[in-house]
Write a structure and sequence with these properties.
Elements: H1 3-6, E1 16-17, H2 25-40, E2 47-50, H3 52-58, E3 67-70, H4 75-88, E4 97-99, E5 111-115, E6 121-126, E7 128-131, E8 140-143, H5 146-151, E9 161-163, E10 168-170, H6 176-182, E11 184-185, H7 191-197, H8 200-212, E12 215-216, H9 218-224, H10 227-236, H11 239-250, H12 255-264, H13 268-271, H14 286-305, H15 317-325, E13 333-335, E14 341-343, H16 344-352, H17 357-382, H18 387-393, H19 405-417, H20 421-432, H21 439-459, H22 474-481, H23 487-502, H24 508-528
Length: 529
């Protein structure tokens, strides 16, 4: 929190707080332009910056967006007048963009968006009050006062206004600034009534708490855990909106704390709705196991990251965290309407959270690849192949040299999972070393093994093996086999790729010679039986 501003604040009955907000040059220019419009046309409009901008300024952060609340004009009306002023002073006319109300996206009132001073786009909306009915989270909206607008907000820290006309912060709930100072997440009105009106605010409260490392107040936690609130969250909120809030948490500063809150408040099976029937059946501790796994994954990624850019915390972070969170569910399936076996994880990501199908597919792929990496780790440490890996390597046609097994195995796994191999490796290692004397020694052990395997792969030049050009094309393989097609050609393509991995300096002629010798050897074996 900005010390030079918030140290001045004392909670009291006054709505107006004497707080010095440091405006950027761009903000000063924008606000002055808006005041000039009000003054020139004698509008009598009080201009207020609402919500998040004020909160972030007081916390010493630079806000991304500016939302202007108007007391006597709609957003579109003000934008039209703003354009008239632009014409008078010879500036470029801006076309207002009207954003219609869209309750499913939490847009309950029409908003107008327009560029001001040919720079930043600003949202304009009139102050309003709202009224909810039992069956819907979509309120009836009407014009309101600044105080009514403040009390309809989800949290007190989001209910603050910056009055541009008077250059002051307004705290109509009379506790927003105090809660900001104390790091408390509180609703302006009774939390249970607030959540029953709009249950999505439960997830928003968790998101803001973990974003700013604030604490949910006791009354809010009790309300969030209420069974009626959970039922409303299931019935009144679209899965898309739930997914958006969860995704914000997972991409935020403290995803582990967010998932821990969801588990602690009994919201896990509400947020991550499971299919009706799954095999094996759901048991009570799945939520706890999922949270423990994402916590281990987060701590592991930070230890590997060590202040240096790394895919696990950067471009592949979303996939890594979802893969970790749902890892305990990787063996759970259900039958769809066509009696097709579908992974529960795929259902949760795609149907429960309504996140992209490609993300669901990738998470399932990471789980599958992590199983193969587990077999690779056994081979890497003991030179003993097992499971599906053993079946792939024990090919009578290949006869791979023992010292090439690690290289071949790693290459085959990477060719399947491609760019996400580091994610699969990390997820695999977290499950490969499930127990240690203490958490710290386990983390050190896991990090050491991860770095060892990662260096092994990169040192061998396998980190983009999926882009390798095959030594032999399908036409050449068919010519050697004297076949015009069939499933055997596909099997031989896989063998050629594994041979190429085992013989990095092998040429096309070497590979053809091996194919001919392998076929001749197998024919002799078959004839002797």
């Amino acid at each position: 929190m900005a010390a030079d501003s918030l140290e001045q604040l004392q909670r009291g009955a006054e709505v107006v707080e004497t707080v010095v907000l440091e405006l950027t040059e761009e903000e000063e220019k924008i606000f002055q332009r808006l005041l000039d419009v009000v003054c020139h046309f004698h509008l009598g409009t009080t201009l207020r910056v609402a919500g998040g901008w004020v909160r972030d300024k007081l916390l010493g952060e630079q806000p991304a967006d500016i939302d202007i609340a108007l007391d006597n004009k709609t957003g579109l009306e003000f934008c039209v007048i703003l354009n008239e002023y632009n014409k008078l002073i010879g500036e470029k006319l801006e076309e207002p963009q009207v954003i219609q109300s869209n309750p499913d996206r939490s847009k309950h009132l029409e908003t107008a968006k327009m560029s001001v001073c040919s720079k930043k786009e600003i949202d304009f909306v009139n102050l309003r009050s709202e009224n909810y009915v039992e069956s819907s989270r979509i309120p009836t909206m009407k014009n309101g006062t600044a105080e009514q607008d403040a009390y309809r907000r989800d949290l007190t820290i989001n209910s603050l206004f910056y009055n541009i006309n008077d250059n002051c912060v307004e705290d109509f709930t009379r506790r927003g600034i105090d809660d900001l100072k104390k790091g408390l997440i509180v609703t302006p009105l009774d939390p249970k009534a607030t959540f029953l009106d709009d249950p999505l605010r439960v997830l928003r409260a968790i998101r803001f708490a973990t974003r700013f490392n604030f604490t949910l107040c006791d009354e809010l936690k009790e309300a969030a855990s209420d069974e009626k609130v959970k039922l409303k969250l299931c019935c009144k909120i679209s899965r898309e909106r739930v997914g958006e809030e969860i995704n914000h948490m997972m991409s935020g500063r403290r995803p582990v704390e967010a998932m821990s809150y969801i588990c602690y408040l009994g919201l896990f099976y509400v947020a991550f709705a499971f299919p009706e029937k799954s095999n094996p059946p759901i048991f009570d501790n799945y939520d706890r196991h999922c949270v423990l796994h994402i916590e281990a994954a987060w701590n592991f990624a930070i230890s590997v990251h060590n202040g240096v850019s790394h895919p696990l915390l950067d471009e592949q972070r979303q996939l890594y965290l979802y893969s970790a969170l749902f890892f305990p569910l990787r063996k759970m399936f259900y039958l769809d309407r066509k009696s097709k076996k579908i992974e529960v994880t795929r259902y949760i990501v795609k149907e429960s959270l309504k996140l992209p199908a490609c993300l669901a597919k990738s998470v399932v792929g990471i789980h599958a690849a992590s199983g193969k990496f587990a077999e690779f780790l056994l081979l890497f440490e003991s030179n003993v192949a097992s499971g599906t890996l053993k079946e792939e390597l024990e090919d009578v046609y290949l006869d791979l040299p023992t010292d090439t097994l690690n290289r071949v195995c790693a290459g085959v796994i990477l060719a399947e999972i491609k760019d996400f191999w580091r994610v699969a490796l990390a997820i695999s290692i977290l499950s490969y070393y499930p127990e240690a004397e203490n958490a710290l020694s386990q983390q050190d052990r896991s990090k050491e093994k991860y770095m060892e395997v990662e260096h092994f792969i990169t040192d061998l030049g396998l980190n983009e093996v999926w882009n390798w050009k095959p030594l032999l094309k399908g036409e050449t393989i068919m010519a050697v086999m004297q076949r015009s097609g069939g499933p055997e050609i596909g099997e031989w393509k896989k063998r050629v790729f594994r041979w190429q991995l085992a013989h990095p300096k092998g040429t096309v002629d070497d590979c053809i010679d091996w194919m001919k010798q392998s076929q001749s050897k197998c024919r002799k074996l078959e004839s002797s039986i």
